[in-house]
Amino acid sequence: MQYRKLGRTGIEVSELSFGTWAIGGSWGKTDDTESLKALNRAMDAGVNFFDTADVYGDGHAEQLLAQATKGRNDIYIASKFCRGGDIHDRATYSEDRVRMYCENSLRRLGRDSIDLYQIHCPPSWVIEEGEVFETLDTLQQEGKIRAYGVSVETVDEGLKALEYPGVQALQVIFNIFRQKPLFDLFPKAEAAHVGILARVPLASGLLTGKFTAAQKFEADDHRNFNADGQQFNVGETFAGLPFQVGVELASELVWIQEGRGNMARAALRYILDQPAVTCAIPGFKSTKQVEDNLGAIEVPSYTKSELAKLSEFYQTQVHHQIRGVY
């Protein structure tokens, strides 16, 4: 396992880390026993960083992390807040409310401090006005959080967040289907020594190559109930692509797995090959998925010609089909 500096935090995190949305909920059936086994398998392999949020299973993902990491001071945790309330209500970002969210997460995590505390995809005006960062500065000074950042939906939101000196990490949707951050956001984040957490790295499973057009998802899986952005930003599901389109586009990428084992590992390797990226944070629901994703750290990097081919693929075949502002 290789480790990379997370912005200016002083923390070094595993380049392949894991997100816990899937084990919390909204990805179909889960099994807590299997989730805990998978978390332990990841840590045994050198993974030292996990991303979660207070709304993943209404705090259940945080509780699972508390169980798996109890007594381990070598594991870093990032959590997120604001979606436990009305994200469009100014009161959600008040000091009292943010402090409450933080204290609740600390209690569920069984920790005295959160290593990275992130605003969870707020409306653009929250970042533009910036008042919430003053509260985060206070929590940092009190030792409740070690560092803070923003999980954003758009490149413009990320660029705006970079203007605040206290922001030390950005969490963005980035994968072979969502290359826009490469062109402006990543260079500026790298210059500012701000860490990048790449979420939705497998485009909700499209980039595993395992789906067919006939694929069906469970009712409580966001790939069913948010397929067209009915519940939250459409980019969080299939990277904003219509499912059928995504399946077709994925079929044109089978070449990336040559010499890299499978498409999932190849898709993660693409992310890890970007120097501005601190870590990729794929989700998981089983030990097998963790082990498969871990394989990405050992497969060959992309050549310049391969990267150029993927860039052309994105610009000519993908970019215009992604829905929503990003």
From TrEMBL:
Name this protein carries in UniProt: Aldo/keto reductase
CDD domains according to UniProt: AKR_AKR11C1
SUPFAM superfamilies assigned: NAD(P)-linked oxidoreductase
Domain named NADP-dependent oxidoreductase: residues: 15-313
Organism for this UniProt entry: Alicyclobacillus mengziensis
PANTHER family, sorted: D-THREO-ALDOSE 1-DEHYDROGENASE, NADP-DEPENDENT OXIDOREDUCTASE DOMAIN-CONTAINING PROTEIN
Matches recorded under Gene3D superfamilies: NADP-dependent oxidoreductase domain (3.20.20.100)
GO terms of molecular function: oxidoreductase activity
